[in-house]
Specification:
By secondary structure, the chain is of the alpha+beta class. The protein is built from four helices and five strands; from the N terminus they run H-E-H-H-E-E-E-E-H. A three-stranded antiparallel sheet has the order 1-5-2. Helix 1 (about 20-35) packs across helix 3 (about 55-70). The model has no long low-confidence stretch (mean pLDDT about 90).
Length: about 140
Amino acid sequence: MRIKDKNYFKIPNAIFSLDLSAKAIALYSFLLKCENRKDFTCYPSYGVIGRAIKSCANTIRVYVNELVDKKLIEVTPTKILRRGKVQNGNLKFRILPIEVAVKFFDEEQMRRLREENTRIKVQRSLEKFDAKRAKTSR
């Protein structure tokens, strides 16, 4: 039996190398499932997301922030008019190109490596200074 093309969607392989939690990957996958392929946006409520990935709204906020921090999505609040009053609507999720997230992740890794390298150099310099100071104080 052949599955029709509309019954699946692709997840970029790179998503698994971006140091994401399992629930963040589940959320990202759900957003991909919901997205409008023309403008890469979707508007699922936290309730809909929660039922899909089995999490409460507060937990979903954590994973949304994780995806935003990793440059995988952008989130914009929306407004609706209900009974003549402007109220908050669902969030607008925009899925960013995976290349943006990969580039950001790689740059962050390089920044951390440079920081660690600097820390090691400073530590070695301090050890040399302490050793030299210990020799001269004898």
